[in-house]
Amino acid sequence: xxxxxxxxxxxxxxxxxxxxxxxxxxxxxxxxxxxxxxxxxxxxxxxxxxxxxxxxxxxxxxxxxxxxxxxxxxxxxxxxxxxxxxxxxxxxxxxxxxxxxxxxxxxxxxxxxxxxxxxxxxxxxxxxxxxxxxxxxxxxxxxxxxxxxxxxxxxxxxxxxxxxxxxxxxxxxxxxxxxxxxxxxxxxxxxxxxxxxxxxxxxxxxxxxxxxxxxxxxxxxxxxxxxxxxxxxxxxxxxxx
Amino acid sequence: xxxxxxxxxxxxxxxxxxxxxxxxxxxxxxxxxxxxxxxxxxxxxxxxxxxxxxxxxxxxxxxxxxxxxxxxxxxxxxxxxxxxxxxxxxxxxxxxxxxxxxxxxxxxxxxxxxxxxxxxxxxxxxxxxxxxxxxxxxxxxxxxxxxxxxxxxxxxxxxxxxxxxxxxxxxxxxxxxxxxxxxxxxxxxxxxxxxxxxxxxxxxxxxxxxxxxxxxxxxxxxxxxxxxxxxxxxxxxxxxx
DNA sequence: CGGATAATTTAGATGGCTCTAATTTTCTGT
DNA sequence: ACAGAAAATTAGAGCCATCTAAATTATCCG
Lengths: 241, 241
Known about the structure:
SH3 type barrels
């Protein structure tokens, strides 16, 4: 009866919270990741925030929250919001690690354009084995960040968080190294890539255009007028020289 | 209301049989693949054969068959068995293409041992985008077979089927090139790999041991006594010299 | 050819994840 | 401090994919 081995992998096993290996559905992983990111962005994580992030109706969230609470991945105070337990946070970080490692791999090994890697990784992250994770990690030389500049959590769940300042804060004549670009909007990302405005690039602020925070920057040998939408997606570390 | 975009992707859309793009659940893909393989292995595809292959109870199969029939992926004659429609076969071949391309990629680009590639590919095949498929294909130089020697269907759904004879049919002193190894049993595969008995290897049959079809073969410079379990998993093309 | 056996299907249930509509609770502004 | 608005939850439903138990249909053999 090999039949009974494979069908109850999704969730049921995790409920008796064995320390074994938590096989969990894609939906659960998506919720954990969303909660983690909202939590990290400050304040309490509300039902509606999760709903919006996952493009799901609020009652679906309430429903899932209850399941997550039963699995001890989340602590829920009704009407008050939700908080990851250590177990939940660990799981969230594993998924984020998968995601960011995949992004790096897709960009580096397969040459996938940076504005597409997010969506690809989004689908792959749920089926990446530890074995493959390890192989990709080694092949890439154990990278610390993904192509957007976001830190890749370690296998132990440690995230090297660093805050960078917005490109918008720079003043004319300053030089800076791009450290992170927002991965929110693929369009923005595609345009940044076209202009060479990606992490590790050095830029030189030439001047500010009066209206609406537009900035003229020099990258390599060419100068570009950056609209607000682009400039606000770029985070930099000013050169101290 | 971006909310309504993403939730009805699994199956529901395919039911109104648009010629657009069939987003289909993992389960549907698994059934199609199973039916394809059983169909190809000859005879009528029965409910119980599918059930056994997928390690699922027969009523689950009946249930899914009805859904597949509604989607026009399968023709079902109650109590008589099932047959893929052209649309169903095309879809099955796409998945098999994904699977075999992934196997090749995992082996070649990531160095995953041959006895593990099947299970990895099994999970990845359902989330591989056309974009990534194309990139992997190009990177590998458009390979014709997977590491077990099974043909990779083209994007158009053409499979270059070739029949090879079993190693067991060879007679002493014959030389042959291994063309295919069965991917059924990972253990067998691991042992074959350990002995260098993989596709493209040239072997030399030294003699047959009396009992139970054991065979002594030379691979490279060393000779091995192959138990039946191993020998029967190897398919060869005899050298015509 | 007809009854026993095997295969298939129907019936009915469950769990996961989603939805809308209705209700309850919390927040907020005057 | 309270009424109206906003947020969260409950209620009730549906689809997918699975299960077990029971009924039906096909097959096979004496």
